[in-house]
User: Fold this.
Amino acid sequence: MARRVTTSRKALVTVAAFAIGLIIFFPILWTFLTSFKTEGEAVASPPVFLAFHWTLENYAEVNQRSHYLLHFYNSVVISFGSTLIGLVIAIPAAWSMAFVPSRRTKDVLMWMLSTKMLPPVGVLIPIYLLFRNSGLLDTLTGLVVVLTLINLPIIVWMLYTYFKEIPGDILEAARMDGASLRNEILYVLTPMAVPGIASTLLLNVILAWNEAFWTLNLTAAKAAPLTAFIASYSSPEGLFYAKLSAASTMAIAPILVLGWFSQKQLVRGLTFGAVK
Amino acid sequence: MRSTSHFALCCTAASSLFIAAAGAQAETTITVATVNNGDMIRMQGLMGDFNAKHPDIKVNWVTLEENVLRQKVTTDIATKGGQYDVMTIGTYEVPIWGKQGWLVSLDDLPASWDVNDLLPPIRDGLTVDGKLYAAPFYGESSMTMYRADLMKKAGLKMPNAPTWEFIEKAARAMTNKSAGVYGICLRGKAGWGENMAFITAMSNSFGARWFDMKWNPQFDTPQWKETLATYLSLMHKYGPPGASSNGFNENLALFQQGKCGMWIDATVAASFVTDPKNSKVAKHVGFALAPHKEGIKKNGNWLWAWTLAIPAGTKQVAAAKTFIEWATSKDYLKLVASKEGWANVPPGTRTSLYKNPQYAKVPFARITLESIESADPTHPSVQEVPYVGVQFVAIPEFQGIATAVGQQFSAALAGTESADQALSASQSLTKREMTKAGYYK
Assistant:
């Protein structure tokens, strides 16, 4: 017998959920509102919430000063490119670790994860020199390569977790029916793991979109993505918060919209196993 | 007939392509890395003038926040990455990088650029072993900005060169915490370019120095004790709450909102606080020199310049020099004045600007010049020092050490440790880092 939930309890939980949601969302909302203020109103004390002179001048100036579309294009290529290449490498790797593990599989997984524990700045100079010598500085190819390598451990780990949830018997049945390894992965495993693969893809696109160490340090004018676009509006000597907010809104809007449209997939993939 | 005309058309198209390709080849592209501040952004808006004069040079801009830019250009120049042809760097980097051979000398800029017109303290800070390694784009010092209306209400008159005693008296008189007005706003946020820029410059006015002639740190001297005690007393009694997280921008916002009676900070702030569009107190701002201590002939003001320099790894030296010559010329100052008014001309680089009667009408012009001229990077303290730099010490280790010391002083301001503890920790950490760096035999 299902437990009865009273209306007042439901209302309380709903209000609490909305309050927590608002707290989490508030910085983004504040950035959005600030982008429509003048620089003076942006730092007004006490702060003005809605009763200010709404203006689009910050957006106009940001568009005039920067090549937004170039940065946007670079962000799309880098985030989707690195994630897709990462998936192509990680799906077979996660398959082997989940279904044909060796004695050292756990150690290999831990070792892969441990590479994420190294502060990136520790390898900045070697990577910079490698990029310089290979002519990869300020190129999209270079950034796709470096972000693929950086996010690969997370992609493998996430897929490994999903694949572990899939009963090996299903794959074995496919093999007994004469499926080759390629067909087994492509036509049996992958369709069953679609929610997991989709959430891995989305999460890694978001991670790559927001990555701001390598994308800032390895680019100059040509391959700079939206992280560099935002950084160009930050200043320790001058109050440019309204323009910075406009730039930030323009930089996060695409990924926010993508998140909204795919949130069901994202939540499902993150909270459920592949065949639960 | 038809095939002949096709052939002719193809020939024309091919030759047009060839000419276009040849034209494209003749064009030189340079990448300029720069900081996001008003003067630099204004220059990007005035590039039409440069493009008209030099159609063969295309300029790509990389604009970044100061600390991000510093990290990027340092990595690039140290590895000879060659990503940038012109870099915007400060007076801290120029002597260090010039000595390392990382910068191209600018001694061969044409006579019309007039190197002798540069303000002597700025030129000295950019010269290593007699060679000029960077061209100043704008220079700044620090000064006292104050609310003339509050000062009048308190029955006081700000002298041109106030003492720390007067500043304390004025801060006490102007503080009205219930009305949200604090007598004085100073930098408290930890960082070598934040609170340490201010406190180091302040320490010079108390006769303190960072190092003696044998590179021993001097935080255990009475001069440093007096500096920190005065700073903490002013801020604890008359400063705004949460001052340990206030840097230039936070104090600028407070001053513009009418929350500060006085603010001692960069001269470049003058154009912001007098801008009626963003400042509520624009009409009431007065300017004076940075304070000094009675009997010591050093003001607590710093000296800084954002400069344009050419990294030794670039292949576009000639085009880079052409660009620098344009951006730091007398004609550029006139160009800005004609388009944006004299108040927006990049200040603090050329003597001729301060002789211009139209520029003399700008309310903060005289104090800026006096402040810059009173700063001497080769003799920052009344005591002898082994280093160059007013609010910094031009050695590579300084950034790390001063940021750590800045954290100690910021903690003392927040009240989590005493002044003595902060000074003692600063002394030992500086000694440790200098030992590691091999300064003691």
Observations:
- Chain B has two domains: 2-139+304-360, 142-303+369-436.
- Chain B touches chain A at residues 31, 33, 35-38, 41, 44, 60-68, 71-72, 75-76, 78-84, 193-194, 247-249, 252-254, 256-257, 259, 266, 268, 272, 277-279 (CB under 8 Å).
- Residues 17-25 of chain B have pLDDT under 50 and may be disordered.
